[in-house]
Write a structure and sequence with these properties.
The chain folds into 2 domains: 237 residues, TIM Barrel (Alpha-Beta Barrel), CATH 3.20.20.70; 92 residues, no CATH class. Helix content is 47%, strand content 14%. It contains 14 helices and 12 strands. Strands 1-2-3-4-5-6-8-9 form an 8-stranded parallel beta barrel, surrounded by 7 helices. Strands 7, 10, 11 and 12 form a 4-stranded antiparallel sheet that branches. The model has no long low-confidence stretch (mean pLDDT 96). Bound molecules: flavin mononucleotide. Flavin mononucleotide binds next to strand 9 and helix 10.
Length: 339
């Protein structure tokens, strides 16, 4: 009973040796990290967040210079330049796209599939998962509240029961809170086609993150990674999990200012929601590129507290796989004793 065999559906879908995805991380998942993950037998995903369609094509060329293995392009459906990004990326023939943000419109899925591109997307609940399958997605990702970055409100444990256990039509990858091979073994036994990790891969030399920020993450506990909340429905705030700092408090102030402007009709709802997105993208850049621990957005999942080292991507993947296989063999031994 080996991890690779249990998750064959996942590796076949991704075209990789291992069913391990490094989820896209804005400002972090660049050509270095994506190619390192794919070269190590996993599946790297490029974060397109704020990048123009033209520049995304340049980045895809960069990745292809660094690896000949499959990788994905992550596109955020709520980005103001989403359509331009999608059009350009599809012209450059990616093997896979990953839609994030709100669930993608059927026409976006169709557009990608017409080009022969495999489509993955996040499913927040069972109803959405079924709709996405009807709309033609090829695989789903379920990501629990424990995850780093923008999060939904439901935990990984509940999503497993709600979605993983009820979907057979397409491969389902599980994300949110995964940092060890031990838990991966149980997810594989539950029927996951693979796993997606973010926080674990941030703590690698290949992730181009300011050293101060990496060291800060290493010292953080699981409880330090908390979730921001929206103060007014009109702002459309998608909660974000970050390590608490002054920037976190700044976010509440930004929201109050935007609500006041909305009340006075100085801005539209669309402008307000765009400002919220811009806030996070800017604050994340400060943390990742400038090492600003006070005002940067230190996005990380709860599992930051159980990661104690900075490890090369190849070692992260190799250790995950061997720990998973070891746990699977222990489970087999335990089962034999019970019979
Ligand atoms: C700093 C950071 C930025 C992220 N940015 C994105 C993004 O741009 N697009 C996306 O789909 N997911 C994004 N995510 C989510 C990750 O791809 C991944 O699903 C998540 O980190 C998994 O949970 P974990 O951190 O507990 O491993 C981000 C996560 C982090 C920590």
């Amino acid at each position: 009973m080996k991890f690779e065999n249990l998750c064959r559906r996942g590796t076949d879908f991704l075209g990789t040796r291992y069913p391990i995805i490094c989820g896209a991380m804005s400002w972090i998942s660049d050509s270095d990290l994506v190619s390192a993950v794919s070269n190590a037998g996993g599946f790297g995903v490029f974060a397109s967040a704020h990048i123009s369609g033209k520049d995304l094509v340049v980045q895809m060329d960069e990745i292809r210079k660094k690896t000949n293995k499959p990788f994905g392009m992550n596109l955020i459906t709520i980005s103001p330049i989403f359509q331009e990004q999608l059009d350009s990326v599809l012209e450059a023939s990616p093997s896979h796209v990953v839609f994030a943000g709100r669930i993608p419109m059927a026409k976006s899925i169709e557009q990608a599939k017409k080009k022969g591109v495999k489509v993955m997307t996040f499913a927040p609940n069972l109803k959405a998962a079924q709709k996405l399958i009807n709309d033609g997605v090829d695989a789903l990702i379920i990501e629990g509240h424990e995850a780093g970055g923008h999060v939904g409100s439901v935990s990984t444990l509940v999503l497993l029961q709600e979605i993983l256990f009820n979907i057979q039509e397409v491969p389902v990858f599980v994300a949110g809170g995964i940092a060890t091979g031990k838990i991966t073994a149980y997810l594989a036994l539950m029927g996951a086609s693979g796993i997606q990790l973010g926080t674990r891969f941030m703590l690698s030399p290949e992730a181009n993150i300011h050293e101060k920020t990496k060291q800060y993450f290493l010292k953080s506990d699981s409880k330090d990674a908390i979730v921001s909340f929206g103060i007014d429905r009109r702002l459309g705030v998608v909660p974000v999990r970050t390590i608490k700092n002054k920037g976190f408090e700044e976010f509440t102030k930004t929201q109050i200012e935007l609500v006041q402007k909305l009340e006075k009709e100085e801005i539209t709802r669309k402008e307000a929601t765009d400002e919220i997105e811009k806030f996070w993208i800017g604050a994340l850049r400060k943390a990742v590129k400038e090492g600003d621990l006070e005002y940067g957005s230190l996005m990380a999942g709860n599992c930051v507290g159980i990661i104690h080292d900075i490890k090369p991507v190849q070692a992260i993947i190799d250790d995950l796989v061997s720990e998973t296989d070891l746990e699977l063999s222990k489970i087999k031994d335990r089962a034999k004793k019970i019979q």
